[in-house]
Amino acid sequence: MLQRQAGRFAIAADEDQSRLYWKVILRIIPFIFVCYVLNYIDRVNVSFAKLQFQSDLNLTDASYGLGVGLFYVGYILFEVPSNLLLQKIGARKTITRIMCLWGLISGATAFVSRPEEFYAARILLGAAEAGFFPGIILYLTFWFPNRMRGRVMSFFVLATAVSGMVGGPVSGLIMQHMGGIYGFKSWQWLFLIEGMLPVMMGIAAFFVLDDRPRDAKWLSDSEKDLLTANLSIERRTESHSGFQAFLAALRRPVLWMATFGYFSVTWAGMVLNFWTPTIIQRSGISSLFQVGLLSAVPYAVGAIGMLALCRNSDRMLERHWHFFAAVFMSACAALAVAWCSQNSALSIACLAVLAAGYLSAVALFWTIPTSFLSEQESAGSIAFISSVGQIGSLMAPTLFGYVSQRTGSFTVGASVVAAVLIAGGCAVLSLKFQHLNWN
Asked: Most CB within 10 Å of its CB: which of 194, 282, 284, 409?
């Protein structure tokens, strides 16, 4: 009888915790989800603007690729300082600052007229956005234990897919119909319209977000205690400051191997986010609005694949093999895109597989370093992984654009992308088998 009663109490406790975490998810995730949708739209809307402003600014494919890559110069330089600042002043102030700045700079991109101005705008946009993605990753670790992070990260990364599904058609619609209004070209309206919304959401973030469970007025004292206790069970604490703990983490090989793994993932993201409209257009689709609509298809399919793979990863409590499967899928799809670039249906199908692999890899990856980093190490280390990993985003578009221009096809560039992805997948997978000091 006592055993049955204990079992019933345990089930009731689990149900209470499940309801509590869904309460937290519904409070936090939708807001940061919308913020990340806007972040991704503002980052990649240049791929749609390129379809018209390339001639206005006298850009070649190589110089466009350079401009895309230069975004990550500012991004990389300010990533770690931004996350260390978040640890000190809190997420809501940091996210407000980041969103307002990037919205203003994105809107100002509408007024560039030369390649040099385009390059400068991209560097400034990267500096403004620095710290947003790793800041959100760090913020989620303040609320959710490791066993839930695969699913929670997938909800967050789902915003990438939604931005592709929403941003593509909306950007195509703006490009198709807004040209000439008040004397602005359609690509200028694209930057102006899609730059205003982040400023509004950034101001809202200051009032909507709470830094930690203890600050949330919408939680009862018992709920705050339970959330804090669940985090403290698995969290290591450090006596060092955030910066000192970060320096100590840099001496651990596991951090560098994880960083290379994330570096590889960004190469798949580069193909998907910055070349999808061009790939679809060159496959035979001429209407800009149709290009925008069709560019949403890979993201929609990719979102379904990501949710399924991440849910299975949480169910099995296994991350490394799932991550490797995701990057292997992306590598194969990148190669296939190059070989069927003249067929629009096959190109879109391959881009869909690429999207499923890429989105899954991003969501799954961030469950791995957050499981072996202490709270003090996390702020600097997560930002370090993100910023150094983004060197791939700096290198890949420039290399991909240059090779595509020289060869007249995507084949060589896609082969390099596939090789980097497989190497990164192997690096992360090796963490499962090597006897490294994780603690």
From this structure: 194
